[in-house]
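## Example pair
The file below holds two records. Each record gives the amino-acid sequence first, followed by its structure token line.
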Amino acid sequence: MSFEFVIPLHQSDLLRASGANQYVVEDLCVSRQIADKVFGCKSLLRNDGPLMLLENFDIFYSVLRQFKDITSEVKEMAWEFLLKMCKQETQGLATYLEEDQLDSVSRQRHMNFLKMNMYLLSQMAETFETVLTRPSTSIASNKGVRKKAANVGFDWENEKENFISVISQPLQLDIYRLWDPPIVEEEFVNLVANCCYKLLENPLTCRNKPCKDAIFNLIGLLVKRYNHTLSASLKVTQLLQHFEHLSGPLAEAVGLICTNFGVKNIVSEILREIGSMDPKDLARDNSGTRSCAAFLVELAERIPAIMLPSISVLLCHLDGESYTMRNSMLGVIGEIVLQVLSGDTLDKKAKDTRDQLLDKLEDHIHDVHAFTRSKALQIWHRMCNNQAIPLTRQRDLLPLVIGRLKDKSSVVRKSAVQLLTALMVSNPFAAKLSVKELEENLDKESKKLEEMMPEEGIPDIPAPVNTVDDWEEIEAEVVKAIQETTNDDSEDIEKIEIPENKDINSIVSEIQKLLESSEFESALNLLDVAMDNWPEHAMFSIPQPTDNEDDIPLETNNMDIGAEKRCNLLKLIFLGKLAATTSESAVAVTETQTESESSQNSNVNELTKQQIVVQYFKDCVAFASQLQDAVPIISQQLGSKANTDVMEAIAFFVTAFEFGISNAMQGVRSMMALVWAKDQGVKDAVVAAYKRLYLSPKGANARSRSMAIVNNLTALTVGATIGELTSLEELVVQFVKSDDISKQVVQLLWERFTMKLPGTTEEESSGAIIILGMAAGADVDIARSNVDVLVGTGLGPRAETDFTLARYTCTALLKLGCSGKPKVMTSEQPFRFPSSHAIFTRLSDILSQGIDNLTDSYWQPFADQAVTTIYRLSEHPDVVCGEILKKLAANILKITETSSAAEQDDQTTTSCPAAVLSRFLGFCGQVALQQLVHLDVMVTSELKRRHYVQEKKNGNEGKNKSKNASESNDNGAIEDELGLTGATAEDAEAEYIRNICETESVTGPNLLSGVRPLLVAVCSNPTKYKDSSLRTSACLALAKFMLVSSEFCDAHLQLLFTVLEKSPEAVIRANTIIAIGDLTFRFPNLIEPWTANLYARLRDDSVHVRKNTLMVLTHLVLNDMVKVKGQISEMATCMVDSEPRIAALSKLFFFELSKKGNAVYNVMPDMISRLSDPDCGLPEEEFRTIMKYLFNFIEKERQSESLVEKLCHRFRATRTPEQVRDLSYCLAMLNYSEKSIKRLVENFACFSDKLSDVEVFNCFQNILTKAKKLTKPELKVFLEDFEERITKCHEKGMEDDEVEAKASKASSKARKGTCKGQKTPGPANLRRTAKSTVKKSTRRGRRRKDDDSEDEGDMPLKEATADPANCNQRRSTRKMKGRRPKGLDLSSDDDSDEVFQSMLSKVPKFQGLDENSEIEGENVIPNTSMSSRPKRGKRKLLSTPDGARGASSSSRLK
């Protein structure tokens, strides 16, 4: 029975015939019959062999059709039979295909079996795969898959490998001979291939390496032997778009096909398919795009050389919309350059290709997408690490990378810093890149080059006039001329006579010229005559051979020896290689020429080498300069909010410091402050960086390494600021705790401090004591065991002239006492020295003896630290400081007497140097402050500690247990534990201490009280006491005195604010504003009436004062020490300050304020009122800048609704176009919801008449643009109607403005005409004019009345009156004409806004201030209680604001 089995597209196609002699399934078994028939195939297979399938195909086909209804045993049996038949047929087919001639009948039977068997196996494998990978709870994991596979009788995961191995065996034979013509049909190949692709769709198959490798080899076999290349490329592209997990496996498969099977054209087909994809589709399909991108990159990693010829078809994706594909293409380019186009062996074509690809990489450093920019930089980074960047390219690359340091994306900045660090590490120039040193070397080498240069410049080696190529062009004609002259008779040749005055050299030159002019016969004749005249000449007697026999043309082979000699001579003459000299001097001339040429070549070589050296240093300087320019930019990243920026910047500065970049130390010092970072990773990175830079030296032994550490640490203290020293102390504490600073290092520091190490300078000694004091913060024993050394050296004879050393010694001594607030829940007594200890004796001597040492300006910092040390370490610090005060006063009197005795002209007056008096007042102020701390903190804590010890001693066990359990320092908890009696006692003690501070410390009969009149006199009489340093110290001391006693503070508060406002020195105002901040924390009720004066300093001329004021107010407001009121608008104006730091601080303040609930929203109406007031003088651009930032904090929908209504109602109260534009701009800044839009439409009447202004109209257009983004369709109709109304009002307003302008113009012309003609207008004109005037004035009056009634009845907010003190007259750009307008008041006439109203009702007000009075207007008026003509030198004091308690201190100052 002869038939043909046609592989169907669908299983059902086998049930019906579509052609002649085609196999059709006729006996389709039902499910209950299949088991018996399959079992019966066992005997048939044993008896008839594998070809029994031709008669029993229907049985196995029924298994496929009834797969769901039959048991797993039947499926397994059928599967095993099919595999067994395939194996047996493979063995028989191998023998059968070895025959030369194949019988057509048997060939047809074998072909049908092969197609049937492959079809059944493939279909069953796909069915198994589909069933077992179907999503369900039973196969949610790998374990579930195995459990399901067990139900079908075998482990399908392992069976797949066996299946692929079995079907691969017949495909390795020459089965194409079974087909006629001998080409395997495409359907058969696709049948096997599609089964392989189906298996790869399962991620578990790709994880099974043996099975995956078997599938790849089978696909490679199909591509290699069965022309499956095109189909495979299409299928690979389809799989990549649908299965993201196949990107890696398919790249591996394609690489295997190219390398193991040698089919490279599949790569070009796949790349062509990917290159033809629509970029828009790639931008939409993220999953497919990611898969294709990953496939290309991995393929480039495996076979970059094979991809290179087809890379052009992919370059179109570099300009596509999908950044993923752009990233992929950049990765492909990077791999190709790295693996194929790098090295020095590239030809010109390869270098051109490399340069083109590198240009693409350079272009995408400025890609529109941040990830692509970052990817480009990462690829450059990798190329840099592999040294694949050409040196010529680095010069252009470096500026591009530095430009990306300012990128808005932190990812790009991170990659840029990494690349910059890699370029620095792998630079081809030098290990040290100090610009200064490199420039010095460049100057040195440039001078050396100038000395080597001759006067006429670099000698040029003369190039030959004619070349070998020129000779080859004329050689044929020369040979022809020689042959012709040889064949001609000698009689026909004209003899040439040579004049007697010509030598052989001139003849040779003429022959050369004749050859150049193509006069070959004449040249030959002249050569023959020369040979006849000088037959003995060396040039003619010895024939000179040619350089290469191949240079002689074939025609010369037939010439005789004479002709060949003539040809060679002509060639040498033409090329200029023939030395025409006489035989006697030939050797001498030759030697001379050789020596001169060698000398000349040697000079040229030396010059060339020197030029290379100079160019090398030029490149070094250029490279180092570019890196140096990048340092300030990277320093800014140390303050970035992104931790990646900070970490990479730290790594860069570590590397830059190691390479000696000139200004790298700037970054190293800047990153020191990051030791206080909240992020532990950043903190650890800083510690690790400093450990690497300063604690990891190289040395031969331990002492040399320790000495290097000492040098490094002390070098850090040189030129360090207070902030840097504080950060360095934290680092040193970390190093001591981690034992990175060893005991040997500490010992060397002590030796350097005492200057026992040879060569130690005083500066290094001071640096050593600074480090030792820092280390003592982690280990107190470092200082405790060397107190005598500290006193003997740090407070010894050197300290009398070096106050800096004494100051740092005091800092180290302070580590002996407790840091911070003393513990009260302990039995341990605080560590203190007797008052007679040498520490205090030496401090007293140094202070008293050095007060008149005006050459050292560090006496005051030392005195402050000395007083702090005394109060922390002395048992009776007040006694010690009292004695020092007496000594200082005695010394001052002594100095005064000495100076008065020296003054012979005036015997009645005595004087004291202002600097000495300044130091004395500063010392008194510090004593007063430390006395306050001593009483309020130290004494109070010690009393509590003694109460605790007493209670513990009395055996209060219950309280003792609670104390041990809590171990807290909380004062309230202590009072509860001690009980009512203890609490009462502590209250009495606290009241007693407070009474001492109030009545005795600075106001009672004591030393400090005696200094008070002097302080007040200096501060009150700037004319008499003109020295600025004296008045600076006096103001600071006065503020410190005021901190002690509220009574003293209240009495002199007016004086202090007068100094704040009227002092001509900016430093005094800057110090005073800080002192007032401290006073506000201590006595808030006293300072509250003067708050307006604090805000007024934000308008100070000095940048320093404005910055200090802003910082003080920031701390006060954020700590709730100053109430947030409308005056906060002054802080908002700082956003547009000319000083960038002030502007940044102002923005930071409002950012932090926004975190405190609705604080920004609550003050927003008042701020808009004040800032938009024309009298405030704020330019429109600055107003918009401020509002744009502030409205970012209005995020709640309810807040936006309320502000919309209030801003709309304010339109009616505006008087100038600028106010209208400001309000409309604020409306445009809000985020609109459906309710906000409805509120805006409801108040349309408030602003409809203002829409004629173009800017106002544009603002409302922006509002509509925002609102249209809302997706509700009914709202869109509502907005269209609103837009139409706005447009109509705008157009009508424009027309009215035009009519009014024309009428005004006509009226002015009429008036001019009347004046010119001196005519009286007629009665009709008079009536018309009067009528229009009355009507116009009536309309204006009614409008004003309506507005005033609205302002009075509907506005809950207090009307904000412009305060001259708060208005910057220097910035004023808007001027009012006519009547002065009122300030803007924001209110709502809708009483339903209960939340906002209740919020406003809770806003606190200043006590005692009249709401209708100006805040600062009265403060600038002189006090009426003072004399109308004050004494000379007295300062006019500010008037006391309402609410300030206490009498004026002017009576005390008279």
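Second record, same layout:
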Amino acid sequence: MGNSLFANCCRHVTDLIFQTRSFNSPDERSPLLPKPPTSCTVCPEMPEATQCAGPYPDIIPSEAVTGSLQKCTEYLQDLSEAKGEEGTVTVCDKSCLRPGVGAAGLLRQAEASRAVAVLPADLGEGPAGLVGHAQSLEACQSCVKLEDSGLAHRSCCREEHVAAADGGDAAPGAHPASRGHEHPSGVALMNGSGPHESLKGEKDARQNGHEEADPGEDGNDQEVIVIQDTGFTVKICAPGIEPFSLQVSPQEMVQEIHQVLMDREDTCHRTCFSLQLDGNVLDNFAELKTIEGLQEGSLLKVVEEPYTVREARIHVRHIRDLLKSLDPSDAFNGVDCNSLSFLSVFTEGDLGDSGKRKKKGTEMEQIDCTPPEHILPGSKERPLCALQPQNRDWKPLQCLKVLTMSGWNPPPGNRKMHGDLMYLYVITVEDRHVSITASTRGFYLNQSTAYNFNPKPANPSFLSHSLVELLNQISPTFKKNFAALQKKRVQRHPFERIATPFQVYSWTAPQAEHAMDCVRAEDAYTSRLGYEEHIPGQTRDWNEELQTTRELPRKNLPERLLRERAIFKVHSDFTAAATRGAMAVIDGNVMAINPSEETKMQMFIWNNIFFSLGFDVRDHYKDFGGDVAAYVAPTNDLNGVRTYNAVDVEGLYTLGTVVVDYRGYRVTAQSIIPGILEREQEQSVIYGSIDFGKTVVSHPKYLELLEKTSRPLKIQKHKVLNDKNEEVELCSSVECKGIIGNDGRHYILDLLRTFPPDLNFLPVEGEEMPEECKKMGFPKQHRHKLCCLRQELVDAFVEHRYLLFMKLAALQLMQQKANKQESSGALENGASPENGTADSEKSESEDGKIDDNVTGLDQVKELAETIASDDGTVDPKSREVIRNACKAVGSISDTSFDIRFNPDIFSPGVRFPESSKEEVQDQKQLLKDAAAFLLSCQIPGLVKDCLDHTVLPMDGATLAEAMHQRGINMRYLGKVINFITKTPGRAQLDHIFKIGISELITRSAKHIFKTYLQGVELSGLSAAISHFLNCFLSSFPNPIAHLPADELVSKKKNKKRKNRNLGNADNTAWASMTPQELWKNICSEAKNYFDFSLECENADQAAEVYNLQKITLLREISLKTGVQILLKEYNFDNRHKPTFTEEDILNIFPVVKHVNPKASDAFHFFQSGQAKVQQGFLKEGCELINEALNLFNNVYGAMHVEICACLRLLARLNYIMGDYSEALSNQQKAVLMSERVLGIEHPNTIQEYMHLALYCFANSQLSTALNLLYRARYLMLLVFGEDHPEMALLDNNIGLVLHGVMEYDLSLRFLENALAISSKYHGSKSLKVALSHHLVARVYESKAEFRSALQHEKEGYTIYKNQLGEHHEKTKESSEYLKYLTQQAVALQRTMNEIYKNGSNANIMPLKFTAPSMASVLEQLNIINGILFIPLSQKDLENLKAEVQRRQQLQESIKSGEQLEPEDKAVEEKEAEPSMPSAEIPLTQSSA
């Protein structure tokens, strides 16, 4: 089905593919020559330009490398299968694993991904860091072997129904060397826009011969690069331009040359052509290597083909896209997966060599360093306009006034027979009105006017094959501006134009003129989803696509990549389609399938997707909380789908599910099970229950499939009674239904109770909760009874219990050993595993018994395994030990540790048979323990992490994420805030408290806003939203809502119409809301939902009492509700007029929740890369992360949050290893990607800006570095405010750079602010504060104010002395500096005395005022950003090499990838391979 898609996806693709054109390629050395070993950089010093040209895309790790990768984590064992089958493993396999940058856009995966980039602050510390250095020096020259491993799976792309659907979006031409200098290749997309990234890294990795290969092998088995068939050059001859040559690779399809031509500046206006070799037309879908006679130097002719209606429409669409290519309106309107990016405004295009910068940043004088007023420390204004600075490129060069479809379409029959396809109407900039005919032969002017139809050709008719050529002839302005526009288009960074995988919406937008746009108009009135009109068979069968992709083979790496890529692509298309459909449903544009029922109960089908509203239809959820339960059920269900998808059991299918909140309604969109609509639900459900447990059925096949998920999901197989009192066995909750579709697949749906219930919010009569819960006021009645524990909590709880199990067993074994006779003391102690006893045990076993304990744990592990394998060799005493430990921790098996939950416990209406009474009791106890664990371990754990600054949320979303990662639901937010207020270090948690309160307020407001909006009809929407925001944020005491003008409201209220409105009663009830009433509701909502008492009656009080910023609250509420407001300065404190008018509300967007398919292989590479880096093996880490980047690109396309994390880590590694320009290039991509995928003011983006500034400074781009830091500070002020620990780091950075450019007074303002914040959040005695004092002292020294300098340095010295002792080098350094300052001060005083004494003829000694050197500033910057370098001598290197070899052999002999510290061992042991000896010392630990 996908083939015809190819041509059509041109529109996104062209926008996208080879935009790295502006690089020149000076170094044309053959990429096959081995690189000389470089000193300490990751990658050989190729000029930036050649890097962009990317040598050979299909570099495949050879056997030895794949072998060594296997050692890197046990996970990667699968690679060996791939190796067996294919001889080599394709890692970045070109043509079928291409980033699919598709029609409906790729996919946005924001949630879990920032967690990925956990970066150790002190990457290079200690000996391990040195080891990394030494290894990077071992680059060995190596031979290169060319080999064609003609991979069979290359061609599968085309047969595969879904994969093909994005074949057209491929990144053409991901290949070697130079496609002429304006064409570096489109590997761009494969490895984040710079082919060099992974290729160079990979290529090097192979050459350096130690991607963890043993030094032993190094000698004899030298590394080899396996390169798939080399590329070759063909000549392209297109009409009207000089022939040019193009580098291609044999794996490419002809189609990809088409894409290149449609994007090249000089051929971009052609869409309808074929390529011919010696007069033979080439098949678009043939691979180049299959074409006879095509070889180095062949001449391919571009031959114009006759148009069809479809081709003509594609052509017009493509021209419109070229005209709009710099226009940001799609990003502001949130369509077609466009989003905003402002980085280029701040770098002014001068990052790296591609920039326009002529001079190096050494001449200081020209730099203007003063920041705007609002960025200075202490400033109270928070302007909004600066959030979206005006980009010069956005004032687009106007090429045409109007290009639109003519009203004379479609051509009448007689004209059709003359070849007329359609008519266009154009107004040129010179104001000439023309009508154009698109005919089979091309475009020409006809004689029609707006009112007269005359299809005859005008004179002259200017018949041209391309519309652009025609317009060039009739409008000189068009000719000039179109050329200029295309020049600009190809200069932009590709990451500014590639579609994101999921739509990102902007909560502010400037006022835009609404221009005529034929394509937009046409799209609005045709259901264009996924380009149906261009797909044979019209609408897409989503369910079939979603399930077929899951069935793709996954035996080896290439297959898995292909499968994950297809799954990801279909999911992103499905999410886009579902979102569009949900909006259409709420806007009333879709006919219900049960139109006669009342509005709340209606269901819809649109584009093969089923839509239902989040209301309690037919009292389904009566016992669970009615409409409230019906509102949360879809998100619970989505979490279930997400989880089952992640477990990925073959043969078990879930529905595509997307939950959309829009205009106050919740819509669930699901793919449709084949045949479900034809039959009643009762007949089709063969597993589970449709009435919450009254009638229950089971099915052996379902039990078998669900059994496979029970271990990873910790679900216990259990029996329930049905209405006939028969026992029925289930392996899920009763609501989970199994239906076999007409396609024979086993579907499960209604997964809303996949996880066990949260007893803290589910009071059950006669059940006593643990002490910890009662202390915190639980159990508490919640609005609905569907509260579940999060999966993260279940996992953390089980892990906690596993530790306990190991400790209990070890303790008993040791006692057995000690006494040699039974002693059950410890056992009784551990019999009831309440947390109290758990803790006492912990301390007992840790007290001085660590060494025994380790061996003890080891024995337990061994014992547990032998018992589990049940070979009868175990003596009864040891069995007893394990049995007791199992019983104590609540394991369901008494021979091994196995904790599972029964999700039906405490479900209303579910009954259990007598036989399982005891089991049910145990399960109840387990649930109570889990609820207590959340309160007594997870919440304190979160707060402790915040105190340690290991978790640094900056806004509501990052706080929610931190809570979710620890398994804490948002309904505990009030408890978390209360816990913070009772914490001893309360002041150091100020920032968390503030974020918590604003999150609490905005979430409560969102709940109210949801029901508020349901009563508003469309015509009153902007008035209602602005009124709500006025009541919420404005100081104006009595805002009045403007109802829609009377002439618009129909006088005769039609009875039938009344029914159409989804709201309850009167459509104008919203207008009577007052600020007092709203804030009263917010406070009661906070109390009822979050159990927190807010002390404020209006916005002003809230801002004052909790020190909140109204602009921050506005951002939070807008993001949560999808409101988009006008970009202008809002005065919140004006008491005479309201802040918002209806004109300020621009749009309301949907808030979408969906599944995020993962790239599992890539993620594992990424994790093992991180682990390597943390152990100090930077070189290997870098290679693994490059590899991960490659695989991520293969699965997600070019844009994704995880790719962003990957690029950030790569940049940091490049920087540490001395390759500054490479660091800059990778970090630039990370910033662009973060802006595009997460949002321009997302906390992640702020941090990316800071990293980029550091690398800019290292590359001597000082003014750019300052601009970036100022931008980061502005965003931080907007998102949170000034009082945040991260602000100290930011201000230290700014202060240091300003010190470097000799702006001392400015520098002091920032550094002193940083000092104040550090003292507050880290305590005045911390080393961070000592460093801050030192930085301030240095600036005072530069100003020759020695007294102040001495004062600060003394403070710092005292801290060092107390914390580190007299003899630590830091203390010594500080003391030396104090001496120096004292000398300088004395010298200055002498001079002054001399002047006083002798007046003007005094003999003055020259004083040394030191302007800081760039190197010293950079050194301090590195220190504050947590990067340490260690200088090495030659001797050190020799020793290190020997050490590395010794360690690697040792490591080999132990056969374990990453050793853990003994205490942490037990936690990790579940994941590690069974035979991991734990007595060894951690080998590769960086000891700073």
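Notes on the second record: The longest helix spans residues 917-947. The two ends are 59 Å apart (CA to CA).
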